[in-house]
Design goal:
It is built from 16 helices and 22 strands. It is an alpha/beta fold. Helix 13 packs parallel to helix 15 (about 365-390). The longest helix is centred in the last third of the chain and has 24 residues, at about 365-390. The structure holds S-adenosyl-L-homocysteine and FE3-S4 cluster.
Length: about 500
C-alpha cells in the first residue's frame, strides 16, 4: 500500500525549499501526501533554530504527535533541519518517541533512513560535523548540497519557486546560529542554477527567488573566472518564459555596484532588496560582529537610492540585544524613522547556545523591555510603511496574482458565478495588492489601479482592458487594505506552518 507523508515546516525559505525537496524524493520512492498528521505513515517536522520560540513550537508539536504515536507506534516521527543539527541526541532525550533526527546537510539520506526505520532498524540520528570538528573542507563535505528534482505541489504556488544559490554562511554574526547549523558557505555552479531555472520555467514557473543566507556574497570560481550574483542574474534574465527574478537575503557589505546596476538594467530583476541592518548603533553593530558601521550602511543605502529611486529596501532588526541601552535603541528607532524601509522584520534577541554572544555577552535586557522596544519599533515602521505605500495611490502597478486573499480563504467564500473573488498578488517591489477579480487570473500578471493603501498592503481595481471579461460592477473596493497578518496564501496540500 502507498505510504503517506505529513510534513510541517517552520522557519525561512531555505526550509520551505528543503521540505519541497524531501517530499519530491519520497514521492519518487512511491510515497504520497497524507491529508492529516494522524493518518500519515511518517510525520516530519522541518525545524528552525534561529530563535527559541521556533524551537518551542516544534517541541509542542512533538508533544501533540506523541499521543498519535502511542496509538499507532508504527508511525515514523522525524525531526529534520536546523534543530536536528543543533540539538542532535538532545531531541531524542526530550522526545524519545522521535525516530529520525536529520540535519540540513543530510537530508538526501531521508528516503533511505525512513525505510530503515520502517524495517525495524530503530531510531537514527544523521547530522553533519560541528564547525570546530575538523578542517573547513571536511566540515563543508559533511554538509551535502541537496537540490535534486522539484515537487510543484509542495511550492507556495506552482508559478513561484525558490532556487538555492549557496548553502551555509561564513559571516558568524555574534547572535546567529545559522553558520553553526547550516555549515560553511558553498556556492552552487551557475550552470546548475540555470538548468534548474529552465526546468522550473518549463513546468510553468514565472517567478524565481534566489535564496542564500547572504545571497549577494555569491562567488563561484570556474577555471580563471569568478561568477558573481550580477553575472548569474544576467543569465537568468535571458531565460524565456520567466517574468520575475528576486533574491534574498543580502549582506550590506556585499551590496556592490555591479549588483545594483544589474537590478537597474535587467528588466526581469525586481527592484526589491532585503538588506538587513540589524541595528542603528555602531557600538551594538560591533558587539554583533556585523562587520560594518552605520555610516557604511547608509552609504550603501545611498548608492541604492541613487541608482534605483523606486526600489523597495527592507530590513531585519534585533531589539534587546546584549547590553542594549536606551540610547542605542533610539539609534535603531531613528534609522527606521528616516531610512524609508518598505518594511522591517523585528525580532527580540533570543540567546542561542553555540554563538559568540551566548558564550561572551549576558542576555541582560529584561523581557518586558524587549517587548516594549519591539512594539515601539514596529509602530515606527508601520508609520514609515504607510507613508511609503500612500505614494502608490493613483498609480498603476503590474501584479503577479498569487491566490485568494485571506479574507476569502478564511471565510471559505466561494468565487461568485463568474469566478470573481478577492485576490492578492505582489508588485515587482514586493508590495502586496488586494483586489477583486476572477480566480482564473491566478498565476498571471495583471495591471491594477491602486486606490487605497494600508501599512502592509495596497488595494485597487483591475485596470480597464487588461482583465478581459471582468464586469466592472462586480468589482468592489476592498477599502483600507487589511493588515499583513490577515493575508495568507492558500497552503499547499500536506504542508502547514506549525
Ligand atoms: N541571512 C539570513 C539570516 C537568517 S536569520 C537570512 O536569510 O535571512 C533571520 C533574521 O533573524 C536575522 O536577520 C536576524 O534579524 C534574526 N535573528 C538571527 N538570530 C537571532 C537571535 N539570536 N535572536 C533574535 N533574532 C535573530
Ligand atoms: Fe546569520 Fe549573519 Fe550569516 S545573520 S545567516 S551569520 S550573515
Amino acid at each position: 500500500m502507498t505510504k503517506r507523508l505529513w510534513i510541517e515546516t517552520v522557519g525561512c525559505q531555505m526550509n520551505v525549499l528543503d521540505s519541497e525537496l524531501v517530499v519530491a524524493a519520497l514521492r519518487r520512492q512511491g510515497w504520497d501526501m497524507a491529508s492529516a498528521a494522524a493518518e500519515a505513515d511518517a510525520v516530519f517536522y522541518n525545524t528552525c533554530s534561529v530563535r527559541q520560540h521556533a524551537e518551542d513550537k516544534v517541541y509542542s508539536a512533538l508533544g501533540r504527535i506523541r499521543a498519535v504515536k502511542a496509538k499507532r507506534p508504527d508511525i515514523v516521527v522525524g525531526v529534520l533541519g536546523c534543530m536536528a543539527q543543533k540539538d542532535q541526541e538532545l531531541v531524542r532525550r526530550r522526545a524519545p518517541w522521535v525516530d529520525l533526527v536529520v540535519g540540513p546537510g543530510q537530508l538526501h539520506q531521508v528516503p533511505t533512513l525512513v525505510e530503515e526505520v520502517i524495517a525495524g532498524g530503530g531510531p537514527r540520528i544523521e547530522v553533519s560535523l560541528d564547525r570546530k570538528a575538523g578542517s573547513r573542507d571536511a566540515i563543508a563535505r559533511s554538509f551535502e548540497s541537496y537540490d535534486p528534482d522539484r515537487d510543484p505541489a509542495m511550492r507556495p504556488t506552482p508559478f513561484q519557486a525558490f532556487i538555492r544559490t549557496q548553502t551555509g554562511c561564513d559571516k558568524f554574526c555574534a547572535f546567529c546560529v545559522v553558520p553553526h547549523v547550516r555549515g560553511p558557505e558553498q556556492a552552487r555552479s551557475p550552470d546548475t542554477i540555470l538548468a534548474e531555472a529552465r526546468k522550473l520555467v518549463a513546468e510553468g514557473c514565472r517567478e524565481i527567488t534566489l535564496i542564500g543566507q547572504t545571497v549577494n556574497s555569491y562567488r563561484f570560481a570556474d577555471g580563471g573566472r569568478t561568477h558573481r550574483l550580477s553575472d548569474l542574474l544576467a543569465r537568468l534574465d535571458a531565460v524565456d518564459g520567466l517574468d520575475r527574478i528576486k533574491f534574498v537575503t543580502n549582506y550590506p557589505r556585499d551590496m556592490t555596484d555591479d549588483l545594483i546596476a544589474a537590478v537597474r538594467d535587467l528588466p526581469k530583476v525586481c527592484p526589491y532588496l532585503h538588506v538587513p541592518a540589524q541595528h542603528g548603533s555602531n557600538a551594538v553593530l560591533t558587539r554583533m560582529k556585523r562587520g560594518y558601521t552605520i555610516e557604511e550602511y547608509l552609504e550603501m543605502l545611498g548608492r541604492i537610492r541613487a541608482a534605483l529611486p523606486e526600489a523597495a529596501v527592507t530590513s531585519d532588526f534585533i531589539v534587546g540585544y546584549c547590553g542594549e541601552t536606551d540610547a542605542e535603541f533610539t539609534a535603531t528607532l531613528e534609522l527606521v524613522k528616516t531610512a524609508g524601509f518598505k518594511n522591517s522584520f523585528i525580532f527580540k534577541y533570543s540567546p542561542r547556545p553555540g554563538t559568540k554572544a551566548f558564550d561572551r555577552l549576558p542576555d541582560d535586557v529584561p523581557e518586558e523591555v524587549k517587548r516594549e522596544r519591539n512594539a515601539v519599533l514596529l509602530a515606527a515602521q508601520e508609520e514609515a510603511s504607510l507613508a511609503g505605500n500612500r505614494r502608490f495611490i493613483g498609480t498603476r502597478q503590474r501584479v503577479l496574482v498569487e491566490g485568494l486573499s485571506s479574507r476569502d480563504e478564511k471565510h471559505g467564500i466561494d468565487p461568485g458565478p463568474d469566478g470573481t473573488a478577492q485576490l492578492t498578488g505582489r508588485t515587482p517591489c514586493d508590495r502586496i495588492v488586494v483586489f477583486d477579480a476572477p480566480t482564473r487570473l491566478v498565476g498571471r500578471l495583471v495591471d491594477i489601479d491602486i486606490l487605497a493603501a494600508g501599512a502592509w498592503s495596497l488595494s485597487g481595481l483591475v485596470a480597464d482592458g487588461l482583465a478581459d471579461a471582468v464586469p466592472l460592477d462586480h468589482l468592489r473596493l476592498a477599502g483600507e487594505a487589511p493588515e499583513l497578518h490577515d493575508i495568507a496564501l492558500p497552503a499547499p496540500p500536506g504542508r502547514s506552518e506549525v
